[in-house]
Amino acid sequence: MDKLRFVDACTEEHFRAMSLIHALGWRDTYVNAVPADYMAREITDDRWVGIFRRNYETQSGVRGLLLYQGNEPVSCLNYCKARTVNYNPGDICKFDNEAYADWGEIASFYTHPAQRGHGYGGLLFEEACRRMKLEGFPSAFVFVLQENEGARRFYAAHGFAWDGTSADIPFPNSPPCHDLRYVKKL
Length: 186
Hints:
The protein is of the alpha+beta class. It has helices at residues 12-29, 36-42, 49-57, 120-134, 149-157; strands spanning 4-8, 63-69, 72-81, 104-111, 139-145, 161-169, 177-185. Strand 4 (104-111), helix 4 (120-134) and strand 5 (139-145) form a beta-alpha-beta unit.
């Protein structure tokens, strides 16, 4: 097996790799939860490139992290201090994080669908939690789609639990999806 390494996202190549993994993850994971017309229209391979670039260039506090196996990116995530404002203009997601303002947040997390089951996501997720703890965050949270049983089991296996709070994601012309907040003391 090729060597595994963590890479802080800081180049156009990193941003493109992260965006592709996000798009593939969305298409695979949310096929029965997110409206098909929204997926076809919005979830393109390069949808998040500009957001990831802007996060890096503006030093917004949202950090991209990838896990590479050799030269291949296999998993990626974004972590930060809990976002209390919407950093991505036009984003349909609006989360009330005021009560969590001093916490760390996993803002997004995906493993390439073809690379699942190898433990890559767990390694990357634990590295992000380790980094947030080193930065002084007392606890961390991640939102997970209520219907995503696999992700909910994954987060529970890593010590996270639903705290009873949630947020609705209002997709156009469709009933909203529900994101559950999973939390963990770091």
